[in-house]
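Co-fold these.
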Amino acid sequence: MNQSEDLLTLPVFPMRNSVLFPFVLSPFSAGRPSSIAALDASLAREDKLVAVVAQRDATVEQPDRDTLYGLGTMAVVKRMVRSEETMEVILHGVERIELIDIEQTQPFLRARFRPVPVTLEKNAEAEALQRELIRLAAEYQSLAQPVQELDIRQIVAQIQEPMHLVYLLGTMLGLDLEKAQALLEASTQLQAMRLLHRYLLDERQIQQLRQEIAGQAASEMNRQQREYLLRQQLRAIQQELGEKNPEEAEVASLRGRLDEAKLPDPVRKEAEQELTRLERTPAASPEHQVARTHLELVLDLPWDETTEDKLDLARARQVLDEDHYDLQEIKERILEHLAVMKLNPTAKAPILCFVGPPGVGKTSLGVSIARALGRKFERFSLGGLHDEAELRGHRRTYIGAMPGRVIQAIRRAGVKNPLLMLDEIDKLGRDFRGDPASALLEILDPAQNYEFHDNYLDLPFDLSKVFFITTANTLDTIPGPLLDRMEILRLSGYSDEEKLEIARRYLLERQRRQAGLSAEQFALSDDTLLAVINRYTREAGVRELERMLGRLARKVALQIAEGGAPQAITPEMLPELLGPPRFFMEQARKELPPGVATGLAWTEAGGDVLYIEALLLPEGERLLLTGQLGNVMQESAKAAQSYIISHGQALGIAKPKAGVHIHVPAGAIPKDGPSAGVTMATAIASLYSGRPVRSDTAMTGEITLTGLVLPVGGIKEKVLAARRAGLRRVILPAQNEKDLGKLPESVRGEMEFVFAQRIEEVLRAAIPGLA
Amino acid sequence: MDSDDLMRLARRLQLATRERVQPLRWRPAADIYRTREGWLVKIELAGVRSEEIELKVSGRWLTVRGRRYDMALVEGCEHYSLEIAYSHFERSIELPCALEQARAVTQYRDGMLLVRIITEGSQT
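Predicted complex below.
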C-alpha cells in the first residue's frame, strides 16, 4: 500500500450507485462521455490509474466537488473493451484516496488526491471481530444462497489481510450506496469491522424474514392442496353414501325452481339449455359461477308477475290529498292519467316528469301515486350516471358483470309493472363510455321497451307495463329527444304559509314520531314554526325545514330522557336549541340611488332578488357589462340601452351621450336567463334621467327592441322572493297575469301587482316623475 | 421479491467468486529449469523496462518484483481493448536449495527475464 503523502493527480471516474473498495476487482460500464474520457485519460497513462469516486446524487450528469463524496478509491484498469457507445472495464481497487481539489472539469474531471490508508490494528477485539464476521458471513450466505457451490469460509481462508476481508464482504453483501460509502470512509480497521458487523446482522435478519415469508407462502399452498384433497375425499364419501355434493344440490334446486317457474317459452328454452350446460361444467370452473348467477337472475325476474291496479279515482284522490298539501294542478293531472288508464287498460303507461326545486316533494309524489294505484314502488338515481352499461347491463363475458339498473329494479320489485322512479334525469352524464340518454330513450319508448334487451340478461324483457316517472330540478339539461317523450309537471317552491301548513300537517308529526315523543311533549306554535322557516331555512322545498324540526325533536327528546319536564317551544328558545339564526329576513334596500333597479330571478332552488346597477361612463364608451352575465342577459342589456337611447326624448330624458356600465352583484355566480331586460332598461332610464327607482318595487320581464314586454317563467318563485325581501309591489308582464293563480290567496292579497305591456308602462310605474 | 432485491441477488451471485479479491500486484508466469550449474528461472516480463525489475533472494526464495508501464506507440491513438496487466507485479519462487550462497546472473531476452542461479556445489 502506498504510504506516501505525495499528492496524485488522477482522472476521475464518477460512480452513480456503487462504491469500489480497495483490493476488490469489479466490472464497470462507462456510458457518459465525460466518464469515457476519464477512462481514456487513465489508459493513456503508463500506470493505468484512475480515481473512482461515488456521486452523492445519481441524477447529476456533470458532478462537481459538491456532488461527489470526498473519499474514493484509486484503481488500476485491468481489462478494457470498447463498444459503440460504452466502455466496459474491470477495475482493481488499490487504496483509499481523499479528494483535495478539482483541477479540471472538461472534457472530464481531473482532481488531486491524497492517499489515506486505513489504520490497522492487531488486538484481541480485532481478532474476535474478524472471526465473528466470518461466522456471520457464512450464516448469511447459507440463508441467501443455500445451494451456492462456493463456501465463503474457503474464500476468506485465503485472505490474510483483515481489511481485504472487510472490503470483500462489503462487496458481496451488495450494500446500498450510503452504507458502502460509510464502510469505505471508516478510517480504522476496527471502525470498519464494527460497521460491517452491524450490516451483516441487518442482512442476516432480512434474509431470515425473507425465508419466513417464503415459508408462509409455501404452507398456504400446502393448505390449498390439502383442502382440494379433502374436498375430493368428501365427494367420494358422499357418492358412496348416495348423497349429493353442494354444487349438485344447488343445480338440483335450480332445476326445481325452473320446473315451477312461469316463464315465456323462449326464455324457458334458453334457461333449460343453460342449466344443462351448468350441470356439465365443473364447479371449480369460473363459468360455473357466471352461469349460476345468470340463471338465478332469470328465475328471480318477474316474467309474468303483476300487481292489479286499483283504479279507484276517489281513493287515489284521497291518497294524494293525505300525502300532499296543495299541489292541486299536479294532483289533477295525475288523476287524469289514472282515469285514462282505467278507461283504456291497453294504453301505453305514461311517462311523467316532475320538475321543480329540491325538497318540494317530487319523489314522495311518486310514492303516493304507487300507493294510490297499489303498485310496487322502486327508484334509482340517474345523477352522475355516465356509463351506458349501468342502464343496459354489462356483457356476461366481463368479470364482475351485472344486469343494468332497470333490470335490477324490476328484480327488486318482483313484478313486471312497478312504478319506477328515475330520479335526477337532468343530471345524466355522457362520456366515452357511451351515451346513457340513448339507452334511456329505448327504455322509456313504448314502441321499443316491450322487448328491452339487457346485455347481461341477454333475453328480451317487457318493460311496457312499467309506470315510469322521472324527476328533474331543471329542464335545461335534459336532452331534447328525451324531453320529447315525457309529460312535464312543474312543482314550484312553497311560500312561507305553505311551508307552515306542510310542517303542521306532515313534517312535525313525522319527526315527533321518529323521536318517540308524544303530542304534548313536542308542541310547536305557528309562531315558532314560522321562526324556524324564516330564520333557519332558505329553500324552495321543505327538506331543510324537516331536518331542523328533526333536530328540535331530538333536543326535546334528550331533555325528556334526562328527566326534564315537557314544555312548549317558543321562538325565543330557538337560538338555544338550534344555534344562532342562520338567515335574517332579507331586507330590501331602503333607498336606491339613480341607476339601480330591483329585479327578480328564478333559480333551481327557488326565487331570488337581484339589484341591477348602472353607472355613467365617459362619452364615447358604449356599454360595459360585468357580473358573469350570460349571452341572453348581455343581449337584453344591449336591447335595453338601444331602446332607451332611441326613445329618450319621449320619456323626458335628454339625449344621452355617455356610455353605461351595468353590473349585477354577486359577480362570482354566473347568471343567465331571459327575464332581466325590463330591469336593465329601468336601471338605464333611471340613470340617464337622474331619477331613482321606487325602492318598494321589484320587476321581471323581457323586452323587445320595439319596447314590448314579453312574459317570463317562474312567477310564483319570483313573487315569493320579493315578498321575503319585504317588497310589496311587483311589476310583471301583462301576459303573466294568469300565473298569479298559483300564488296562495294570502300572498296575493298582500301584494300590489302592476301589469305592463310596454316598457314605457314599466318605467312610469317604477320611476316616479318620469314623463 | 422486488426488482431491487433481484438486482442485488444477481450482483451477489456474480460477485461471490474467488476472483473478486486479488493481490494488487500481478503475477508473471515463470518456467523453472534444472541446469548443470544450478537453476534457470525464466519469467515472462514482456514490456517491462529492465530498470523497473528488482530481484531479491532470501533463504530458498527468489522474488522478482517491479512495475510494467504502458508505452505510447503511436501519437494520438486510444485504447480499443486492454488485456495486458500493467502496474506492479511480484512473483516469488521457492527452489529446493538455499540461495544466499548462490550467484545469480540475469539476462533479459525477447521479453523474458532469465535468471541463472549458479549454486556453489555445481561451481566446485
